[in-house]
Amino acid sequence: MAVKINYEGCILCAGCAAVCPKSALELVGTRIEHYPEKCISCGICVKACPANVISLVKESKQALTEAKKIKKSKMKTKKRNKKTKKAKKKK
Ligand code: SF4
Ligand code: SF4
To answer: How far, in Å, from the CA of 25 to the mean position of ligand 2?
Structure first.
């Protein structure tokens, strides 16, 4: 599931950003930004929005593929960093 925001109805109260446990929402200027890579689709923001403009929707196949790619690339970076640390310790 993915968070979808109807920006036209948003009153910029920042309530969603305040309750998000993963800091996946942030008020940036005059817009709420959503960071899907941090989001765990818990739905807390949906319930917290006083304007009812946030919903959880099914992700498209393309979005899922993109999310998997990002996760894979992050894991690779982590592994690489671990190897580099180990190599440095040996020296
Ligand atoms: S669904 Fe949960 S994790 Fe995702 S933006 Fe909303 S509160 Fe944050
Ligand atoms: S809680 Fe709803 S109305 Fe308030 S900033 Fe978030 S999306 Fe906009």
So the answer is: 10
Instruction: Note down pLDDT in tens along the chain; length 91 residues.
Output: 999 999 999 999 999 999 999 999 999 999 999 999 999 999 999 999 999 999 999 987 666 676 677 778 878 888 888 888 888 777 6
Give the global pTM: 0.72
Residue nearest to atom 8 of ligand 1 (CA): 20
CA of 73 to the centre of ligand 1 (A): 22
Q: What span, in angstroms and rounded, lies between the C-alpha atoms of 6 and 27? A: 15
CATH of domain 2-90: 3.30.70.20
- Regarding the beta carbon of 40 and ligand 1, being less than 6 Å apart is answered yes
49 to 17, 55, 61: CA distances (angstroms)? 10, 10, 27
Degrees, nearest 5: CA angle 38-42-48: 105
